[in-house]
Amino acid sequence: MEIAIRPKLDRAAVEAIVSKHLPGAVEFVGHEEFKDGFFNAAHALELADGRHVVVKVAPDKAHKLLRYEVDLMATEIECFERGLAAGVPMPALHYGDPEGGVMIINRLEGVTLPNARADMSDAEFLAVRREAGALSARFATVTGERFGYPRKSGRTVADTWSASFLAMIDDVLADIAENGSPLPRPVEEIRAAVAAEKDLLDEVDRPALVHFDLWDGNIFVVKGESGWRVEAFIDGERAFYGDPVAEIVSLTFGSEEEQAASVEGFLGRPMTAGEERRLALYRIYLMLILIAECDVRGFDEELTAHQRGWSTESLLKNLAILEG
């Protein structure tokens, strides 16, 4: 799929990046471009010495981006560095240039969870869901200096979670208003519904690292002698420091049984009423992002209609939870 903002690089350009930034002389024997991502360019290279690496390159800074998307590569590099140090399974990071928007990481051996699903029994799939929940909880052991996105601008950084999260909401609502993205409710009503939950948000008193993009396509799995297991998580560009409960948003896109398995793995217990309500807030935020990005990513009409349709439906469902 062609995405307007995704950089277009040929094999020679990707090889030049690796030659410049990996130590020693390297010889290339294979190349593959991944075209299923919606933001960064991603290319795999096989080296003659047996190594397999992936090169990620951020969109040109001249492109119009959503406000939260500025400095995304810097965020992803920080997510990798701090996540790996905390024991989160992620590909090894060989090189990261936040300013230049380049990363070089190991290529994983497994496949994404959707690609493995047909070969799993229901029991195996739920077991992987629980494991993914438990492993992703390691992100939350990392503590940031303050709440918000680790951006140079510091626009969403604050000492309280409510102030930071409302700044994040304000940014995406400003994107929506600026681009004329269709919303089922007025911008002012949506902001007011979130702002009314200030006290609930401020029950969160530690800025934990949140990946915030652990949908199944970013979970790699491998099959060993004892069955399927999680190999690693990828794509940490949406990461921020905030409420650990926000991680549950992308972990629970499946059926009720699958959602329960993910929550069991992540928390080790059922969610409290307050956590359920905060989760609705974070689902609202993600749905606003998904609606807003349709106007800057260059999606085709079919993908735009599909993404706007289901994200709008989810937005309304979660607003109703707050208002109910």
From TrEMBL:
Coiled coil: none annotated. Gene3D superfamilies: 3.90.1200.10. Transmembrane segments: none annotated. Residues 33-271 form the Aminoglycoside phosphotransferase domain. This is Phosphotransferase.
